[in-house]
Write a structure and sequence with these properties.
This protein is of the alpha+beta class. It contains 22 helices and 31 strands. It has an eleven-stranded mixed sheet with strand order 1-31-2-3-6-7-8-9-17-18-22. Strands 4, 5, 23, 26, 27, 28, 29 and 30 form an eight-stranded antiparallel sheet that branches. β13 and β14 form a beta hairpin.
Length: 821
């Protein structure tokens, strides 16, 4: 026995040593790609000496002797810290993910090839203005200089992910930067999803009930929707598909997560220091690392600092010495789905106002890792590219003998958005920035501006010109062969909504409805939010003058106006209406829950139990309200819609009819449904989080999920690359933490402010910003998640253009000199 024990111990020790050795080797290889921020070397493509100072938050301050060299430096630092992220974005645009990931990404690649994103980006290079062409070329040289440095100095392939996949990296080009911008546009667009969902609901609901389920934003009413089925002759729809998953790494979000943000500004008369203020927090899907990368550029017109997106040579949100700018999703309706009728005698032709014409077609080959190549036949119509029914669930609303095509402002080969963004970044006044916005095509954004004297907001992006006789007004798919449903060009930029120097001194947007204008000059019939703006309006109106601190307070506000509205409505006949029930019964749990909610102020604080009880109740309530009317379609309405629930419990236009269960003989009341839904929620909470309601924490359910997009599910690695944080806020709070909406944990925080910035032009160097994770994309870097805890706690880092402050506590200075020819 002793001999056996000794050999077992020896084998165990050997196994431990082998594992430790393997870990050491992996760490050594991965650590080799950690950048050295204190270095000096030469670089090809640089014109003059370039200095990059990393401040104590690892924000690079790039000091070039010309704008061209500064953009070179931005490309270099992006490649230092986010090379894998950039290459992944480029492959996404090219439709070449399957070369790395095999069949898992075939659907994603197919979509991007059919949209022709990369080819359109290539065409758009020629239409950029001269300044943008120089910036794009210099930026690409900077990226390539870093790649060359990685190869010549054996710097661990540039990122640890490259050890797991083929390390070949093609040189960066200006086309790649424009393609990254288009991928971001795909992520931020959701009108296709909304059109399909509305059309599907219209096939099973009468018009009055459709108006309840998909309510219009409060304001001026519109004409009723046409009967979707009546738009086609004897249509047969296939309502179900095996999978509606957009595909691994697909840059397509559900409609309610396809872009959001907050931005507002105060004029001098509304500022305590008689100067302007601006706050901005763009919302995107949470990832590790975040989409945003902080940088300061020293340009010939002065310094600019703020949030950049790796792959693009521009500060998208931030400030200069003269101007601050922020962005929110405008929800401009810049997408239309067209149903194209095939020629029954020749399916390679489709119907147009002038008769049947052939599709524009070409072949495209997808190469697949460890698999056979896939050949696609890409088809385009006069309205746009044809998409198969498996994308965006288009097949569920496409009649037999037809296909779906998409008109989309993003699908332009003359897209000057990057030129416009660079011009806005260099503008020295609100008026100059407003004029620069004309070249901005897609994705549409609200631009919020502040200079020393005034504030403004302008909707950027090409507004499609639709005919007044358009059959669906862009709200549901329409027959593409009818001339009245086809786009007629672009509405003049001057007609884009604009708010300059408002009388109240404050301008802003929380993705709310911005104005009422009759079709076809409307902006949209679908808006991102009808709730946050109520809280924002109250906070802005509660003070005569504002400060940087009051803007920060509003940016971090976690009070839910939806909870304050819905709880008194839904629970009006349940609060304090019954005698004490025995311990251990569902009735007792219900009373405890109602007691907690009755004394709650609607604050979605991570440490409180009430937000979890409220959120679970509203979710179960909507499930009970819609599941009998919608059956399988109910799964597409997983997240509670506050306006729908409010309409039902106020019985607006007889919306209370939703409370009755159609399959049962009795007529259920809304009070009964509310009570039963609360019981459902309490049972789910007990099964998931425990029975003691007072000890629940919203933050346990509302955990921010910053996942590595590729390695986030890899055994072992996921504990290294993913970032998890307990967070406050919710779907309808100003500090928005949008939930994923699907079981087993429907309240994970998956979409929020990856960047926050507050700019004070009374003291510009007191401006602050922060991102949701950190500057580095390297999991072994201390800058991978160092800002994450600041972000979670609602803290910031200084945003200064003072070079001496940057140098005072620099974590490193990189000096690049031109390489000898």
């Amino acid at each position: 026995m002793a001999l056996i024990f000794r050999w077992l111990m020896r084998l165990l020790t050997l196994a431990v040593l082998l594992v430790a050795g393997a870990v050491a080797v992996v760490y050594y290889l991965a650590a080799g790609s950690l950048p050295d921020y204190a270095a000096e070397h030469d670089a090809r493509g640089l014109q003059h000496r370039l200095e990059i100072v990393r401040d104590n938050a690892n924000v690079p301050h790039i000091f070039g002797q010309s704008d061209e060299d500064t953009y070179f430096g931005l490309g270099y630092v992006h490649a230092q810290d986010r090379l894998w992220q950039m290459m992944l974005m480029r492959r996404t645009a090219q439709g070449r993910l399957s070369e790395l990931f095999g069949t898992r990404t075939l659907k994603t690649d197919e979509l991007m090839r059919r949209l022709d994103v990369y080819n359109l980006a290539r065409q758009s290079v020629a239409v950029q203005d001269d300044y943008a062409k120089v910036a794009l070329a210099a930026y690409a040289r900077g990226v390539n200089a870093r790649i060359e440095r990685i190869n010549t100095a054996s710097l661990g392939r540039g990122a640890p992910e490259f050890f797991l996949f083929p390390p070949d990296i093609a040189p960066w080009t200006p086309t790649d930067s424009l393609a990254v911008a288009k991928v971001m546009g795909v992520q931020l667009s959701g009108h296709i999803q909304r059109e399909v969902r509305r059309a599907r609901a219209a096939l099973v609901l009468p018009p009055d009930r459709l108006a309840d389920l998909l309510p219009e934003a409060p304001g001026q009413g519109i004409a009723a929707l046409p009967d979707y089925a009546a738009l086609f002759d004897s249509p047969v729809f296939q309502m179900e598909f095996a999978s509606r998953d957009p595909g691994f790494l697909a840059p397509v979000a559900p409609a309610d997560l396809a872009g959001a943000s907050n931005a507002w500004a105060a004029a001098p008369e509304r500022s305590a220091k008689s100067s302007t203020l601006l706050a901005n927090d763009p919302h995107l899907g949470l990832t590790a690392p975040t989409v945003w990368y902080l940088a300061r550029l020293e340009l010939e017109g002065g310094g600019v600092i703020g949030g950049t997106i790796p792959g693009m040579p521009v500060v998208m949100v931030g400030r200069s010495g003269q101007l601050g700018w922020g962005l929110t999703s405008s929800y401009l309706d810049d997408q239309d789905v067209h149903i194209e009728q095939l020629n029954p005698d020749n399916p390679e032709e489709y119907l147009t106002p002038g008769g049947y014409v052939p599709f524009e077609t070409r072949q495209s080959i997808l190469r697949v890792d460890d698999g056979d190549p896939v050949t696609l036949t890409l088809r385009w119509t006069e309205n746009g590219p044809v998409l198969p029914g498996s994308h965006y669930d288009l097949g569920s609303v496409t009649p037999r003998g037809h296909v779906a095509s998409v008109s989309w402002t993003l699908l332009s080969g003359a897209d000057t958005t990057i030129s416009a963004a660079l011009e806005i970044m260099r503008a020295d006044s609100v008026e100059a920035a407003l004029a620069a916005g004309e070249g901005y095509i897609a994705p549409s954004q609200n631009l919020v501006l502040a200079d020393a004297d005034t504030v403004a907001m302008k909707t950027l992006g090409a507004m499609p010109k639709r005919a007044e006789a358009h059959q669906s007004q862009g709200r549901i798919p329409a027959p593409g062969w009818r001339d009245e449903n086809r786009w007629k060009g672009r509405i003049a930029y001057d007609l884009n909504p604009e708010f300059l120097a408002p009388d109240g001194g404050i301008v802003g947007n929380t993705n709310n409805k911005t104005l009422d204008r009759d079709f076809p000059l409307h902006v949209s019939y679908d808006w991102g939010d009808t709730q946050r703006v109520r809280r924002w309006s109250r906070l802005m109106g509660s003070r005569e003058v504002h400060t940087r601190e009051s803007f920060i307070e509003a940016q971090l506000d976690t009070v839910s106006p939806s909870a304050r509205t819905l709880l008194p409505l839904v629970g009006r006949d349940l609060f304090f209406t019954a005698e004490a029930a025995p311990e251990g019964t569902i009735e007792r749990q219900r009373q405890i829950a109602l007691g907690l909610l009755a004394n709650w102020n609607g604050e979605m604080n991570e440490h409180l139990p009430e937000p979890l009880i409220y959120a679970a109740w509203m979710r179960k309530l909507q499930e009970r309200l819609i599941r009998d009317e919608l059956a399988g379609l109910a799964s597409t309405f997983q997240k509670p819609e506050p306006l729908f629930i409010e309409r039902v419990f106020r019985n607006v236009d007889d919306a209370g009819a939703w409370c009755d269960v159609l399959q049962s003989a009795p007529i259920e009341t809304c009070t009964e449904v509310a009570r039963d839904a609360l019981d459902d929620a309490l049972i789910w909470i007990e099964e998931t989080w425990g029975k003691n309601l007072e000890s629940l924490r919203w933050g346990d359910a509302h955990t921010a999920r910053h996942d590595h997009p590729v390695l986030g599910n890899a055994p072992g690695l996921k504990w290294v690359v993913n970032i998890r944080q307990s967070t406050s806020g919710g779907d309808n709070t100003l500090m928005r933490g949008a939930t994923n909406g699907s079981y087993p944990n429907p309240f994970l925080n998956v979409h929020g402010a990856g960047y926050r910035g507050v700019y004070d032009f009374a003291d510009p160097d007191s401006s602050v910003f922060v991102t949701a994770t950190g500057q580095s994309g390297h999991p072994l870097s201390r800058y991978y998640d160092d800002m994450g805890e600041l972000w979670r706690r609602g803290e910031y880092v200084p945003m200064s253009l003072d070079p001496e402050l940057a140098r005072a506590a620099a974590v490193g200075v990189t000096v690049l000199t031109p390489a000898a020819p």
